[in-house]
Design goal:
Layout (H helix, E strand, L loop, with lengths): L3 H12 L5 H13 L17 E2 L5 E5 L7 H4 L7 H12 L20 E5 L12 H17 L5 E5 H14 L15 E4 L2 E6 L4 H4 L6 H16 L4
Parallel strand pairs: 2-3, 2-4, 4-6
Antiparallel strand pairs: 1-3, 5-6
Helix pairs in contact: 1-5, 4-8, 5-6
Length: about 230
């Protein structure tokens, strides 16, 4: 079973991190200046920890919190269009108790699923630097080591795919030859199955590059593999 106390301690450490000056400045400035539609809300404005079931067999790996999504609400994929798309699919597959993710206190819970971002602070233009990526990488590796039941990783986009592979390498699993990202791509790495999907960003969902049936098929596949032990 996942180590709940250690996960809670890691969450506190993540939330307190100020290692990347550019990201600290940006996330706090966004939280102060806000946008008109959220002008009456108090923004989180700190790193966003992982969220979900400590006994999860499925780990979803995203890129980073959205400036007015997770950076506002304090919960990954919460309060933005990407999260709306994501949680509808999780709910349809029985992996979430609600299709809506509006705020950290909305009662949403995940079943057999945990979600984390490769980079925990909202980056300018949604583009962290390689140094910022590397500064954050140990958090995901430590998180995954504590999530002892994980069998399937779902990479949300190419950045998530690369982060997942780097994490598996950091945990001592050989990644050679390095599998290429693609929607629906699968790779076996040690005891884990890695599945790729286009990121559920508006850039992909509004253009039809990623449709709801396409995304749900990946989530369904992850659920199937996790039930079979990931093999």
């Amino acid at each position: 079973m996942g180590d709940r106390a250690a996960l809670a301690a890691l969450t506190e450490e993540i939330v307190a991190c100020r290692r990347c000056p550019r990201l600290v400045e940006w996330r706090e400035r966004v939280a102060r200046e806000k946008v008109a539609r959220f002008r009456d809300e108090t923004y989180w404005g700190r790193p966003v920890p992982g969220f979900g079931d400590p006994d999860a067999r499925i780990l979803l790996v995203g890129l980073a919190p959205a400036a007015h999504g997770g950076n506002r609400t304090g919960r990954v994929f919460t309060g933005d269009a990407s999260g709306d798309f994501l949680f509808r699919a999780l709910h349809a597959e029985g992996l979430a108790n609600s299709p809506l993710s509006l705020g950290a206190d909305d009662g949403l819970t995940l079943v057999d699923t945990y979600i984390a971002a490769a980079v925990r602070c909202a980056p300018p233009a949604n583009k962290p630097t390689p140094e910022e990526r590397d500064n954050c990488a140990p958090f995901l590796a430590r998180e995954m080591a504590l999530l002892t039941e994980i069998r399937v990783l779902v990479a949300l986009g190419a950045f998530g795919w690369d982060a997942a592979l780097r994490t598996l390498e950091a945990l001592g699993h050989e990644v050679r030859p390095r599998p290429r990202f693609g929607h629906g791509a699968e790779a076996l790495v040690g005891p884990y199955t890695l599945i790729g999907t286009y990121h559920p960003s508006q850039q992909n969902t509004f253009t039809g590059r990623l449709t709801a049936p396409m995304f749900r098929a990946v989530i369904s596949r992850a659920r199937e593999l996790s039930s079979a032990g990931g093999v």
